[in-house]
Amino acid sequence: MSEAWNAAGYIASSRYRLAVCEYLDENGSGLPSRIASDTGLAQPHVSRALSELREKNIVELLVPESQQKGRLYGLTDLGVAAYKKVAVDRLGELAVVEPTEFPNTNLVTELTNAYAGQLRGIVWCEPDQTWVCFTADELSRDYDTETLKALVSTLTNGEPVDTDTGGGPAGDIQFVVYGLEDALIVRVQLDSETDLLVSVELGFDESITELAESCQEVALTAPIEGRVN
Questions:
Q1: 49-94: per-residue pLDDT in tens?
Q2: For the domain with range 93-221, which CATH number is right: 3.30.450, 1.25.40, 3.90.320, 3.30.1340?
Q3: Is 66 helix (H, G, I), strand (E, B) or coil?
Q4: Sign of the C-alpha dihedral computed for residues 89, 94, 99 and 101 taken in this order
Q5: Which part of the chain is CATH 3.30.450?
Q6: Which among 117, 125, 130 has a CA at the least distance from the CA of 204?
Q7: Are 182 and 6 in contact (CB under 8 A)?
Q8: What's the rounded Cα separation, in Å, for the pair 61 and 70?
């Protein structure tokens, strides 16, 4: 997975980081106060987003560090490349659901049992509908619907899923891994129109390949149910 794709996921996973990068992409540079004013965000949120983006080399300070006033920021080369990969078009319908409402309830049960304590959430993506199931209530409070749409759109429109594990239970497994600030996202391609995103803790100590194989095996053998329209 390229650095630019990981940076794109990092941008898309926060509405504040996304808004700041969108502003800098459109305007070339900006002062924190001006970014806040023009985006309608509170300045502390803008300042924090700029700090986080600087740590990831997505944004840079365009004036000397010692300059306390007129601190102008702009996107780095990595920031420009990453923002271009952020999906501009958001998903259609997205629903945050309970495990019993997920399209494949067996998948939620199997992954929760196998990776208890390390599994953060599961996302089932189809062309016109996406279902998100968090495994902990506190995680659902970290993401609003628009942020989830931006993140899921970016990752599912990302690099081709071309990692071949060499023969899983239903044929070759194709998956790709994205690194965010506090999680790994494993994208498994189930068929030409369906993607599965599985979020696990950053320190995930199990086999990613086995996780991807389990996802495809259960998803393709268990019935699709519990859909939310």
A1: 999 999 999 999 999 988 888 899 999 999 999 999 887 666 678 9
A2: 3.30.450
A3: coil
A4: negative
A5: 93-221
A6: 117
A7: no
A8: 10
What is the topology classification, in CATH, of domain 3-85?
Answer: Arc Repressor Mutant, subunit A (1.10.10)
- Global confidence as pTM: 0.77
pLDDT-above-70 percentage for the chain: 87
For residue 212, the SS3 value is helix
Q: Are 216 and 165 in contact (CB under 8 A)?
A: no
The DSSP code for 168 is B
Average confidence score pLDDT of the chain: 85
The tokens for 199 are: 């979020």
**pLDDT per residue as tens digits for the range 16-54:** 999 999 999 999 999 999 999 999 999 999 999 999 999
Least trusted range by pLDDT, from 117-121, 132-136, 190-194, 225-229:
225-229
Q: Which string of b and e fits 162-199 if b means at least 16 CB within 10 Å? A: ebebeebeeeebbbbbbbbeebbbbbbbbeeebbbbbb
Distance (Å, rounded) from C-alpha 36 to C-alpha 46?
Answer: 6
Q: Where in the chain is the domain with CATH 1.10.10.10?
A: 3-85
